[in-house]
Fold:
Amino acid sequence: MCSAKNKSVSKGFIPPPIPDNEALRLKDLESLKILDTDAEERFDRITALIADVFDAPIVLLSLVDRDRQWFKSIHGLNVPETSREVSFCGHAIFEPETMVVEDAHDDPRFCLNPLVTGEPNIRFYAGAVIRGPSGLPVGTCCLIDRKPRKLTDRDRKRLVIFAKLLESELLQSVKLTRLQQETVMSAYFDPLTGLPNQRLFLDRLEQRLKIAGSLDSVTICVVNICRFSNVINAWGKDNANKALVVIGKRIKAAIKNKGTVARLSGDRFAVFTNRSKSARYERTPSHLRDPIPFELNDLFNQPVDVGGVELHLEANVGVTSYPHDGEDAASLLENAARCSKSVGACAHVQYYSQTLSDEASKAFAIEQRLRSAIANQSLHLHYQPIIDLKSGRLQSLEALLRWRDETLGNVSPADFIPVAEATGVIAEIGRWVVEEVCSQLVAWKRQYPGQLVPVTINLSTIQLMRSETAQEIESIVARAGVDSALIQLEVTESCFLKDFDSALCSMKKMLELGFKFLIDDFGTGFSSLSYLNKLPLHKLKLDRSFVSGIDHSDKCKALAKHIIALSQELGLIVVAEGVEDAAQARILTSMHCDQAQGYLYSRPLPPAEISQRFFED
Structure:
């Protein structure tokens, strides 16, 4: 029996020691990816069979973690884990195969163990070691009884066999996971360079095109190494492959996180990068083009060292640009590839068409006409209603700029706003918009007293970052005698990407003057959540890309639901953009979205039609 003199530690029992290779053992355990997973029938069937064969009340598949033993399969016990300090299995993993304790009361290691003196009142224990992928002990298959018993040699061998069976199931999961990973790698990645292959490149490009906003441009480049067959013939395929690996690394290092790099096949690589469309409207033609294609071409100025041999390679770069040179990923890539082959000489950058030059001419024409647009009164505002989803009542209006030029005709904001920003005309236009909105609010107040709703004005990044903007808006509003609460300012996430602190400071100045802020196109930027709790926002606009798929895409629905819930938890009013039909509105209402905007309710209308539809009885 156990007595006080048996106590070798103050606790009254001996905790299991820590193996010398504990770090490696834990790594082996973690590689199983099994800890804290749900119960599985494939393991539970085996432990139930073991209990029946050995007539044992408790059978466990126990895994010895850093500070605990966790049970993947449990028969006859109601706890999912125990402390490693009191575990029998922590001792058992030191044995080559099995550890048997016929009567815990007679074993000085366990006689005063809490699992012996209390529930589950262990008297008998037999554990067979289970090993991980590297052969290190990670746990046991163990039998437990509440009364002393012996284990025959035959039973000991049978227990080892059962442990091997459980071990095989555990390792099978690892093999299956590795097989799945290898399958994915072979399907989507180039085995030589480790870069995405053409299939994954097209998939990623297609996804990027789907979320490309009005101010986004995507550049697609195909790098075609010139006369690479000569390298294969002269230096062999192995050296040629090594050269391709080096080139792949160079391209990836050059692009960094600005886009995606892929190896298409043989001697061709592909790249797509993102940039702001407004960057294309510079004063000098040399700045109209993305520098990335030329940087890719310059990578070949340095020789490639392969086994001490310097290979001097050249490449042509074919370039297409979305949305100008195609609407889908496949055609954009195909056209870029065609360009990379069409150049007669090497070391050239070839654009798919003259669209960039045409665009520069168009931008110049827009710039010339835009400077006089305010003076000749060709700018005007339309207003789109924002509706309360529950009551259906008008909550606010968004002011949307329109331009009809006598020479150019109707010019899209997507075309003239970037030019206005690049030339600085945006500041003058911005002041005009505020003046026009205030003038309209005064007119509505005079005609329809008591029916005014706030009007949202869009602020560009340049306007937000100008130190004079806050004072200019405040001055215009004060002169007009308009309550600042009736002016709401709408910004996008792009306003905060370059200089978050300055943008935030500007917002706070305007907030102090009584203006409220909305953030537009939420969910399309790169740092949505990190900005959300820092910005002094009143409303958030759920981007139309989520709304358009909300009635047929589970992913869109889940994202929209979580964005709405998170925003409202932060005290924000949520406005859904681009609501086109009643089904979308019903789903948004069920998600407790506050307000909606879109063609279901009204297209943008001139002031007279707004008055007729929403203010007149």
About this structure: The chain has three domains: 4-184, 198-353, 379-407+424-615. The two ends are 96 Å apart (CA to CA). Residues 20 and 94 are 11 Å apart (CA to CA). Confidence is low (pLDDT under 50) at residues 3-10, 278-288.
